[in-house]
Amino acid sequence: KHKGRDVILKKDVRFIVLSNNYLQIRGIKKTDEGTYRCEGRILARGEINFKDIQVIVNVPPTVQARQSIVNATANLGQSVTLVCDADGFPEPSMSWTKDGEPIEIEEEDDDKHIFSDDSSELTIRNVDKNDEAEYVCIAENKAGEQDASIHLKVFAKPKITYVENQTAMELEEQVTLTCEASGDPIPSITWRTSTRNISSEEKTLDGHMVVRSHARVSSLTLKSIQYTDAGEYICTASNTIGQDSQSMYLEVQYAPKLQGPVAVYTWEGNQVNITCEVFAYPSATISWFRDGQLLPSSNYSNIKIYNTPSASYLEVTPDSENDFGNYNCTAVNRIGQESLEFILVQADTPSSPSIDRVEPYSSTAQVQFDEPEATGGVPILK
Length: 382
Hints:
Residues 61-151, 158-253, 256-341 form the Ig-like domain. By secondary structure, the protein is an all-beta fold. The chain is built from no helices and 31 strands. The strands form seven sheets. Strands 6, 8, 9, 12, 13, 15, 18 and 19 form an eight-stranded mixed beta sheet that branches.
């Protein structure tokens, strides 16, 4: 009997009474669980006896992940929860692995991984790129075990991981700036300076700059280096999650370059400045010469020199015709030197204006003048 009802052998072929009167149940089901009673009778005596046998059917676990792929974004303080639903008898216990390694909470204050009471849910806090993995939930009881996989895909905002400042010499054949970035999806890298965007094509139109990119690395090569190439270069890594930028600096060392108005006009007693603008890296030492003699000197007491980081000013107050003529500005640094000749010219009185036409009126006349052909080297005041 099963649960008080007779076991009908002909009706359910899964039940067989063996030659030793054992009851065999084939293809056992959870519904077969319960109390079975076997009875023995001696009809001649009218005696009867029985024994109850309790049958418990254990069911192997079944487990299913609610999502086989879970997406998250790194470094945003996000938490993500992986869930598996399990069934079986006895109730299965749950455990988890990450890329084949068991996940265990080693310390009480370990708040990276948090399990629900029955361990069917695994919460990962402060998700970062290292959390990307294949997670497996394992359900286990006396009857066996089963597992289910969940792939955690972690996307990451780009992060510039490598830039390096560079130093080059003017007219050097080439120099290369390198920018490396991490991120998922793989970021694209673009370049710009403080004043312009640099084409992401293989070459700029003039061939002076060449951009090459591969995976997470991009390089910017500048050819035939000019001193104007010096400055800040910014690389920007971008993907669908966000972007990151970082600066690097190209230092170009070059010999001094001088400029300024080479002809300066004045007259005796009128103070004037001769300006020698200097462009150089490293900084240059500037000297003034007159007829091969270093200024200022005892022979030229009417001369003073003032220097700034970008220019040198020679202040001259001519007191005779000898103070007019050539002055030499020379700048020197460890790369080289450059000289520029300036001429201090004695200004002259302007030439006479010429009358172009006269229009008389009843009591007045309008006279039109042409400007004088020679100004004498200084602006006409009136």
